[in-house]
Amino acid sequence: MVLLENDSFLTELTRLFQKCRTSGSVVITLKKYDGRTKPVPRKGHAESFEPADNKCLLRATDGKKKISTVVSTKEVIKFQMAYSNLLRAHMDGLKKKDKKNRKHYG
Question: TM spans, by residue (predicted)?
């Protein structure tokens, strides 16, 4: 997995969307990130680890290529605006759900 800067992550995400426009899918995950690279031990000494600030870890993959970035609290507003514009631009290839005849019993 490649950890990228925020701007380069958005450009690579655009490339992933363009590559998967005709067939395939892009999976995006988002989670809270505290800066740890090693897992927390279950038992034993419980060290109190306080992160300096809250961060978000974004990952995107098309099944073959994986990219990721870490967004800090200072950059959230700017990143979120660019990210939402990118999603709006590339969500036009979605397929509509087939509406089946549903009988309501009641």
Answer: none
